[in-house]
Amino acid sequence: MENGLARRQLLGMLSLAVPAMVLAPDAAQAARGKGGAVPFRAGKAMLGSYLSLRGKTLTESLALRREQLGREQRIIHRYYPWSGYAPVSEPEVPSSAVLMVSWDGTTHQRITSGKSDRNIALMATRLAGMKRPVMLRWGWEMNGNWFSWDGAHNGKKPAGYVKSWRRMHRIFRENGATNVAWVWSPNWNSGPDVSWNRFQNYYPGDSYVDWVGVSGYNFSKESPKTLFTPIVSAYGKRKPIVLAETAAIGHGKNTKGPWIKKLSQYVTETPSIGAVVWFDTDNQKGTSRNFRPDTDAAALAAYRSMARRARFAG
């Protein structure tokens, strides 16, 4: 979500609803055994979050959610800048959790020209050295117009993104990062919504992607079906799906809980979804929105119920 929130809110308000569809039941069978270094488990979705709670460390935030939900987070989501930060470990992330890293990008030309090879190799060796499963979500929301790596900032040529992705994938492989699962993650709707900027144009190819992700929030009261069905329908039979960024904001009293219930039901009915990562924060720069699932008793009860369902026991 970083830096793109305001523009995505506007896009959400302008977008037309997508007809609701549910993936065919055989999708789980088609995706069985997939997911790369972070295997997809048919019928089981991992539930995790990006945790940034005002006044609390990550360790304290994890303890709060553990107490509220009666379970651990299966995915811990972190954001890394493109350069200047390549950690050798994540001591606050429990060994039982999968680390999901959303790694910033740069212009396509700086990658395809080879100018960023050393930076890419450094991150590859650092993540490989962690010796833990990592979901790498590089250059997310590339079909928007708010990041340096999106098509709008690169000559309206998605092919440059694809070429960048494949180069990075090769460098990671050459540096032994076999513990990394590659997550390709567009925004739920494109901005601008024109033919050259369709999310399909940015897809690197099945050989280069382990999970397909998607960002989607109910900024304009969109349902989970509206937000996620286009991606599920396009890739769910070939790749496991991770709802890489999602959360509900309130639209009046007692509106967040019902949306969480809809999300829980949608995931239950969509077998290709193998992970759900909540954007759990009241501390998002540039906005007063509160994405926490415990803003009121009904919302927390709905979230707790979802977390304890067998479908979310991945």
Automatic annotation (TrEMBL):
Cited Pfam families: Glyco_hydro_26
Leader sequence segment: 1-24
Active site location: 141, 245
Entry keyword annotation includes Lyase: no
Keyword Transport: no
Domain called GH26: residue spans: 28-312
Domain of life: Bacteria
UniProt family annotation: Belongs to the glycosyl hydrolase 26 family.
Protein name (record): GH26 domain-containing protein
The organism of origin for this protein: Actinoplanes couchii
